[in-house]
């Protein structure tokens, strides 16, 4: 059961979150934090797909610290489609000038260091399905915030949702039921519908585009 008055992150954690480069608004971040605190009670690691520069990782890691578990974050650090040069969400500062490709890993590491959360986080650098293919550990929470194509969003769901433990939480970001609200497509919305239709997950809460589901049955 969720607490009537959820714990808020300390001011210095909130300041680090606000200062970090990234895409998660504060009110969705607080919903992520609350879910992560609750899921942490299972005593299992909490995993995020889509690190980018570490903005959401800060809140996941702070909740993991409170629960005494590890936060894991997965990203190839080369950016999603919509973050590439010429696209809406491109930030030229994320390009490695030597190789001319995005590399968000150095910024992520600085973000985490400044937030004092390096010891709470294991960062896995690589393609999400490739890492998921050898993953065997049950997870208290999976937060899907990776690529927005159907291939990537489905790959994240199929790769990581099976590892959400009974009673654990599956979070999906950028769920937009109205296509007019979303520039990068509705693949996360389709994954959210698929999770509900599977009968394995039940909706707990919705905060703007962030959906929190709980595993209440087997499968995906
Ligand atoms: C929307 S950003 C994540 C935003 C971040 N959670 C935040 O709070 O700012 C999506 C990230 O997913 C990563 N990504 C996209 N597809 C991926 C894949 N197949 N495997 C690993 N990472 C991927 C991109 O490199 C990008 O950094």
Automatic annotation (TrEMBL):
One of its GO terms (molecular function) is methyltransferase activity. The keyword DNA repair does not apply. GO terms for biological process: DIM/DIP cell wall layer assembly; methylation. The keyword Cell inner membrane does not apply. Keywords: Methyltransferase, Transferase. Gene3D superfamilies: Vaccinia Virus protein VP39. It comes from the Bacteria. Signal peptide: none annotated. This is Class I SAM-dependent methyltransferase. The lineage of its organism: Bacteria, Bacillati, Actinomycetota, Actinomycetes, Kitasatosporales.
